Amino acid sequence: xxxxxxxxxxxxxxxxxxxxxxxxxxxxxxxxxxxxxxxxxxxxxxxxxxxxxxxxxxxxxxxxxxxxxxxxxxxxxxxxxxxxxxxxxxxxxxxxxxxxxxxxxxxxxxxxxxxxxxxxxxxxxxxxxxxxxxxxxxxxxxxxxxxxxxxxxxxxxxxxxxxxxxxxxxxxxxxxxxxxxxxxxxxxxxxxxxxxxxxxxxxxxxxxxxxxxxxxxxxxxxxxxxxxxxxxxxxxxxxxxxxxxxxxxxxxxxxxxxxxxxxxxxxxxxxxxxxxxxxxxxxxxxxxxxxxxxxxxxxxxxxxxxxxxxxxxxxxxxxxxxxxxxxxxxxxxxxxxxxxxxxxxxxxxxxxxxxxxxxxxxxxxxxxxxxxxxxxxxxxxxxxxxxxxxxxxxxxxxxxxxxxxxxxxxxxxxxxxxxxxxxxxxxxxxx
Length: 431
Fold this sequence. Notes:
- The protein is mainly alpha-helical.
- Helix content is 65%, strand content 3%.
- It is globular.
- Residues 412-427 have low confidence and may be disordered.
């Protein structure tokens, strides 16, 4: 075991990647520190066991007792290797051509999605990696790893099939919303608030209990709609466009809302946050794809009751003032005004003529403008794909140079290189 443990080396010694593909300095330091502590602790346990075997107590112990101790030690050993593999997946993909740089760009977008104007929490390092499948996921910072211990960083799993357009932002910002909800302690207090609403509305209590069951996913959807606008809802529709049986499927212990309801709620949140006639059109389109006609009467009644309570539920959600925000609502904390559809349309027109707007904008704002352009039919899927690739590369390169300059110049903060020329951005027609 000591020989195998010695081969668990620092990622800095055996992962090859271009500098622009690297995870942030904070993330790499947190990963290396965590794994180093795990190796030291495990090494100490192994040496202690060897010393016990050679000591008087070990020589007197039964074979059964010695084997029991060894078995528990091996379980701990395998747990440490499993934790190494969790981070190894993240780091190894950084060596893939193009993919590594794109992931670094997604890291930048994820950090932006977690950044609030008000300084209300300490933001953990956050990194992304790709995996197969349709849905994204997050291992939140300070949650339990296999075998024990808490992950020092947030790790977002992104579906490979989403890496073709701005729909990637819908999944990414949703997962970041889960981390934000944990940092702000939103879910449990909101559950209590919704239970109180259920008691206050006895005729609708079953419906409000469903909203309570789904609140963790709904808060993450709110975060995504708030930052990415209609692009969030269109991205969600892309994920949930499944055979009809799945779209109307209700599972009593699933924290995810019924897919049909989830898209309708996303439209309702969008209308409340960013009023515009487009939300009614998107909602009607979704209903036309999946009409409720032909469903069992009981299921139709449940969906109708959810629709009827949806406006009141949205009001409760948007009026909620968590203690962590010191009297402010989520609407106050998030840049809602910057994501108004009219402003996004104006920004697109300005950026199309001026060119540098894509590069100097916050990543989530750039994604919001792209999503609005796609919803309005002002951007083709082909151009969107080129633009996403170019911006991911630009964000990765920009943050790499900024980090290098910060290290060279000392602890004084530096502004990001807003006007850094990037050939690929120009090639995409945005510079």
